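It is worth pausing here to work through a concrete case rather than discussing structure prediction in the abstract. The textbook approach is simple: state the sequence, then state the predicted structure, then interpret. We follow exactly that order.
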Amino acid sequence: MGERIFRNFDWMLLIPVLMLIGFGLLTLYSVGHVPEELKESVHSAESRFFYRQLIWAAVGIAALFGAMLIPFRYYESAAVLFYAVGIILLLVVLFQSPAKGTARWIVLGGFNLQPSEFMKVALICMLARFLAEKKSNPNSIRVILLSLAIVALPTLLVMKQPDLGTALVFPALLLPVLYWRGLDEGIIMLFLTPVVSAFLTILSERGLWQNRYPFPLLVFFMLVLVIAYRRRRYIFQSTLLVVLNLGVMLSVPTVWNKLQIYQQKRILDFMRPESDILGSGWQVYQSKVAIGSGGFFGKQYLQGTQKLLAFLPERHSDFIYSVLAEELGFIGAFSVLLLFVVLILKGLYLATQVKNRFASIAAVGISSYFAFHVIVNIGMTIGLAPVTGLPLPFMSYGGSSMLVSCFLVGMLMNFSMRFYEY
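Step two, the predicted structure:
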């Protein structure tokens, strides 16, 4: 049995991860590097990030192999315990002394533990176990409500910290696993389209398009009508789809006018950070300058100016991709993106191959975790997504993120090695 397991060792999962960790370490070293001719005038306190991350990378790889060797049925049986411990840790962190206006970490010795990162593993296992049950019909109201409750509790606790970026990860995991389990696409429309309607309504009301006419909103509503017509045999869903979207479009302006000015500004800055380049949009603007200046081949390794002169904020964490793109150019940035695509597609393919339902659903959840982080993080560096503070897996500085990302890949390798088990 042991030989059979290791015969299925999945190098196509391990190699991209090791390469991404390598890219991250090289970029972190560059962030803290100061040329000899500038050492007297420029002092970098960020050199320590590389050495700390080197330790976390070693611990993360150990966690990967540990997660790979434990039979995945233990994850299924312990899912409820993982979830309960995660909720308790999220409650504990709220009583910690805030740092920089937030309470996100539990201090253990000289290390900071971020429970919200570990809650992502617990949530994936919990959703997979719940939806893997034969009686869990994803289209039943009971299952949908219970799934929403499972996701809502950690989401609300993380928002309380506050950490909006991490809080968005939890609901982002829900729809993919429900869809994989068999959720009707009409119900998915009921979840997603009102959010899009609200977004487009605010943009139209505030004149954030190039013109003040709400053409995108009108086009989207016409699309909703077409979808409702094509699904007219499901009369209740189709009617509810139109009513929900129309209700959102009509109510958003009223709700908007009742908000305080500073609340409106925060929402607008969140949706369009570049509308305030000298304020909230400074990070995105400098990030785009760094990426654009890298060109096709980059400025060469260690030669990035945006990170050296500290124009680019959070270059060791949120905007590490911008540093890499400036120094290694399109070639380096595309290579990193390609490695993530290989990892995500491999996880989704694995979901179709494993025999066990829990493993299949968990594989989709893990792939969704990586996809959401990559899309949001890289999207915010090029101005296509709001700045939320989500790390880029395996590359951004941070021990909790590294451990969780490596552990999740270890779970995927676990499923791959035991794909034949029911």
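Step three, interpretation. The mean pLDDT is 84. The beta strands are 106-108, 111-113.
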